[in-house]
Write a structure and sequence with these properties.
single chain, 97 residues, alpha+beta, two-stranded antiparallel sheet
């Protein structure tokens, strides 16, 4: 498992502009910490639930979840829950260390 420092810049390449990536660097670690804290406090969550708990927008929360999943901090479960729109959404939990 690859180690990630929660305060580092985004670690997983994302399809985004260099300008947007540069803007997120100073706060990416704080945002990832908010995602991890939500899961620690509430158990497995969907991206939508993470957004509701943390107050992060979908465009901010989803990439942080993907970064944490890509680095081995989170894992996506096969279990799903319905979103507000009725679609199936996977749950994310902390990966075992």
């Amino acid at each position: 498992m690859r180690q990630i420092a929660l305060w580092d810049a985004p670690s997983v390449p994302l399809d985004t502009s260099e300008e947007a990536a540069a803007r997120i660097v100073p706060v990416a670690g704080q945002l990832r910490r908010r995602v991890v804290t939500a899961i620690v406090e509430h158990g497995p969550l969907t991206c939508e639930e993470i957004q509701g708990i943390t107050g992060l927008s979908p465009d901010t929360a989803r990439p942080r979840v993907w970064e944490l999943e890509g680095s081995g901090v989170l894992r996506k479960l096969s279990e799903t829950r319905p979103t507000k729109a009725g679609r199936k959404a996977h749950l994310y939990e902390l990966a075992e260390v």
